[in-house]
Design a protein that fits this description.
Number of strands: 8
Shape: globular
Radius of gyration: 19 Å
């Protein structure tokens, strides 16, 4: 799961047109003030363990909200953060699960409707901690450090085997520009 978190003075949206995947939307226009907006994108990999993704996202978001001293969250489905989208039923399950988990944890939560084209306005706070991206890993239930440049799966740096353990041992394996490793 990819999340772009923005500490906002105000976020407003209006659902303009539904897609063929749209959930029913009783509320098509809403706003929230003094909140953290979570632009959320569920990935194919999240289908491996949706429950763990929800738990891990909850932990990461709670930590983030604690750092910012904020109690209000707007979950905004945003498919544009990955090229490997999860299936709509799993995506909706995870987004609803995160909404429910945050609500049960005592946060004031709103969620924009899934599967709708939406116009929006956001006014970000602009301080050093205002913007943050997170990659939630379904493998270990924790935020991943990187995405593999070859297969695009998230992974934690601690799981990677380093071919070059330190600068003193790598001089024999140095690659000059234009040369293959």
């Amino acid at each position: 799961m990819r999340i772009l978190s923005i500490h906002a003075t105000r976020m407003w949206y209006h659902a303009t047109q539904k897609t063929k995947l749209a959930e029913p939307a009783d509320i098509r226009e809403d706003q929230m003030e003094e909140c953290v907006v979570l632009f959320c994108c569920v990935e194919k990999l999240d289908e491996k363990n949706p429950g763990r993704v929800i738990e891990s996202a909850l932990a990461g978001v709670r930590k983030r909200l604690g750092m910012l001293h904020v109690n209000r969250v707007l979950i905004y489905p945003y498919a544009h953060l990955t090229s490997t989208l999860g299936s709509p039923p799993v995506a909706l399950k995870i987004l609803r699960g995160l909404e429910s988990a945050l609500t049960k944890a005592g946060f004031d939560v709103k969620r924009a409707p899934f599967g709708w084209y939406k116009e929006f306005e956001i006014r970000g706070k602009g301080h050093p901690l205002a913007d943050l991206s997170m990659t939630i890993c379904p493998y270990e239930g924790s935020e991943c450090d990187f995405t593999c440049p070859y297969c695009h799966h998230p992974f934690r740096e601690g799981d990677a085997e380093h071919a070059c353990p330190g600068p003193d041992t790598c001089s024999d394996h140095a690659v000059t520009p234009g040369e293959s490793p």
